[in-house]
Design brief:
The chain is mostly beta strands. The protein is 0% helix and 52% strand. Strands 2, 4, 5, 6, 9, 10 and 11 form a 7-stranded mixed sheet that branches. The chain starts with a strand and ends with a strand.
Length: 128
């Protein structure tokens, strides 16, 4: 089991920036992906961004088309933290943002069913 805790959400205006953080604790894996997903009211949870970890493979990232060029996913100085820098936020970015881990996945996966542990989410609200 991995515990994931997100933080950094809030209420901002369109065009503002936020940085979300996710800290993982508990069981560790030699290679895995960490991702951000979001769920807006009345909509299904959707992929936002992902990044992979391993000792023998270069880091790779993946992004949803809707946020490409505005959001950046990155690792912290330790392997337990991942960030989502969100710039030029739009009202349509309003959602609960979830952090998740996909153990033993080598790529920056966007596949929902590969993620086994999830945080409780942090609310991001963007006003027009």
């Amino acid at each position: 089991q991995v515990q994931l805790v997100e933080s950094g959400g809030g209420l901002v205006q369109a065009g503002d920036s936020l940085r979300l953080s996710c800290v993982a604790s508990g069981r560790r894996f030699s290679w895995y992906a960490m991702g951000w997903f979001r769920q807006a009211p009345g909509k299904e949870r959707e992929f936002v961004a992902a990044i992979n970890w391993s000792t023998w493979r270069d880091t790779s990232t993946a992004y949803a088309d809707s946020i490409k060029g505005r959001f950046t996913i990155s690792k912290g100085d330790n392997e337990n933290t991942v960030y989502l820098q969100m710039n030029n936020l739009k009202p349509e970015d309003t959602a609960v943002y979830y952090c998740a881990i996909a153990p033993r996945v080598l790529t920056a996966s966007s596949l929902f069913n590969q993620y086994t542990d999830w945080g409780r989410g942090t609310q991001v609200t963007v006003s027009a």
